[in-house]
Structure formats: structure tokens, C-alpha cells
Amino acid sequence: MFLLYSMCCILFILFCLWDKECIILLLLRNLFYGKIDSYFD
């Protein structure tokens, strides 16, 4: 699960470097991070 999250973070960073306007991805990452946070809580 953590490996999947790490891969998503890497892809997210690479995509932000490719496209500066990644507000939607940022929101998706925050939503995903919230799920991970509640999963470990």
C-alpha cells in the first residue's frame, strides 16, 4: 500500500514538472492522502 502511494507521489511530482497547472492533481493527492491518513489512524 505504501509502495503504491510512493509511486503515486513520484508520478504526481513528475506530472507537476511537466504541467505547472496541476491543481486538480493536487486536490486528488490531498484526497488520497486523507484516505491513507485515516487508514493508518
What's the short story on this structure?
This protein has two helices and no strands. It has 41 residues and is mainly alpha-helical.
Model description:
The longest helix has 18 residues. This protein has one domain. The protein has 2 helices and no strands. With 41 residues, it is mostly helical. The relative contact order is 0.15.
**What percent of the residues sit in helical stretches (DSSP H or I)?**
over 70%
Low-confidence runs: none
**Helix and strand element order:** HH
Overall 3D geometry?
Answer: flat
Figure out the total of helices.
2
The total number of structural domains is 1
Number of strands: 0
* Structural class estimated from helices and strands: mainly alpha
CA distance, first residue to last residue:
15 Å
Q: Give the rounded overall mean pLDDT.
A: 74
Q: How much strand? A: under 5%
Rg (C-alpha, Å) = 11 Å
**What oligomeric assembly is this protein in?**
single chain
Largest sheet: none
Task: Set down the secondary structure blueprint.
Elements: H1 2-18, H2 23-40
Helix pairs in contact: 1-2
Name a few traits of the molecule.
mainly alpha, 2 helices, 85% helix, flat
